[in-house]
Amino acid sequence: MELIQQVPEISAYLAADEAIDHGHPLVRETAAYLRSATGDAYAYAAAAFDFVRDGIAHSADSGDTRVTWRASDVLAARNGICHAKSHALAALLRAEGIPAALCYQRLADDDGNPGPVHGLIALRLPGRDRWDRQDPRGNRPGVDARFSLDEERLAWSVRPKFNEVDYPHLYAAPHPLVLRSLRAAADRTRLRRTLPVAL
């Protein structure tokens, strides 16, 4: 699949915004900690991915009802759904000068019923002329996402028979429909009812 930058300028994928607040002290502190234990940008990106995937609980798995969406809040709460975890990973990458984009999948359950749009990221490491998608959702039985630059190791591969879709667009900021749902939800139960099922 060819990934398409929503914004042509790569600098847009390094910018801070309300959700990807990589200038926040907690984001900077976490990035500095991860950087101190790694060498180059590749090792740092892998460490940041593992930190978010494994160190921040996916609230659907943990049962946490809190809704986080700003990267610094995700890091503070150590909790979030896929979108929130993607915001945190994008912020950690951008904090160290690695372009990071938000991207999405339309998924369904095993009966073909549409579920909420799934969020993940893409990054562009130095010396590579392409974007690589990564899914920091968090593993559980049946889900084995891994950091990989050779082949995608996402939480889910789309199933065309259920009309699932990999959206090719790389967003510099969270999709407005997703961000509106995250910001408005009082708890995760309400969030599940308001997240878009398609973009």
Keywords, please?
199 residues, C8orf32 fold, 7 helices, 8 strands, 34% helix, 13% strand, globular
Task: Tell me what you see in this structure.
The structure is a single chain. By secondary structure, the chain is of the alpha/beta class. The protein has a single domain, classed as Roll (C8orf32 fold). 34% of the residues lie in helices and 13% in strands. It contains seven helices and eight strands, in the order E-H-H-E-H-H-E-H-E-E-E-E-E-H-H. The chain has a four-stranded antiparallel beta sheet with strand order 6-5-4-7, covered by helices on one side. The chain has a two-stranded parallel ribbon with strand order 1-8. A two-stranded parallel sheet has the order 2-3. A hairpin with an 8-residue loop joins strand 5 and strand 6. Helix 1 packs across helix 4, helix 2 packs antiparallel against helix 5 and helix 4 packs across helix 5. The longest helix has 15 residues. It starts with a strand and ends in a 5-residue tail after the last helix.
